[in-house]
Request: fold
Amino acid sequence: MKNTFFYVPALLSLTLLSSYASQAAIPPKIAPFSVALDWVPNVNHIGIYVAQAQGWYLTRGINLKILPYGSVSPDVLVVTKRADVGVSSGEGVTTAAVNGEPIVSIATLYQTNTSSIAVLESSKIKRPRDLDGKIYAAFGAPYERVILERIIKTDGGKGVFKSPTLNVFGLEALLAGRADFMWIFEGVEGIEATRQKHKLRTFALSSYGVPDYYTPVLTAHRERITSNATNLKAFLEVTARGYEFARKNPKKATELMVRALPKGSVADPKIIEDGIRWFEARGAYVKPGGRWGVQELKLWTAYPKFLLDGKVFPQTKVKSLEWAKLFTNVLLPKPPKLASLQKGQ
Reply:
């Protein structure tokens, strides 16, 4: 009893000290903050889930809520201020600008577009011009036709193809013989096809006349870039850390994301893990010597101009945009100081 008498208070003291230390590490004021997803959780969102699972948002004063993809697009949620940040695309930001909506890209998840047009490797389609007269498994975006026409014409074709309304999409449509070609993100659907033992032949958009562009991107309401700058900066700082962790630790990152999702949400976790490795192998996360999330004016000029010139927005008379206002780098975390790098910190 004597030993127990002295042991219990000591244990309680250590517990209280540990609790106080944990509380001290978390800012006294935690702000609610939300990010709206653009699709079901996938490899594109890995850094967000990793950072949340590690508790890093809380340590920077953010109580993050991930809004699942639904009937209301992330762009609308950001415009109406029902989400602090949205996962969007180069097309989404351009569309918003054409419509006069105050959406700004505040970071890019990848430094290059990884979209391709894909056909089954067993197909007789060997190059883009062979797509003339074939059936495309469309997903209903207004920019699909102008992009596909450019790809086919760049390779010497006429740019004429069929796009009927189908009740199956993507790979399923190809396997069922309902379509001949589809649009994929190679690090997502491309990896999924490989895991399912389906061999694809792909034609990268950027290799056939379509300007490179950023997608997916993180967006915010223009007003909040100033009014909510502190929280947005904290969010991007932690999110960048999440993507950095993922690209260096793909297996662990995948485990963290899968555990954070409802059971059964991810049928094959290896699709995520292999996707991370695919993006990292292609230097898509960070350019050599660069920083995660940084965007350049060149890419925010060429592609939006391509969409406008292609009359993707027939309802508008807008012929040009203030390209530099489509994005900003001011909220991104600053690079480490040279002294810190020299010390290996």
Q: What stands out?
A: The first helix runs from residue 2 to 25.
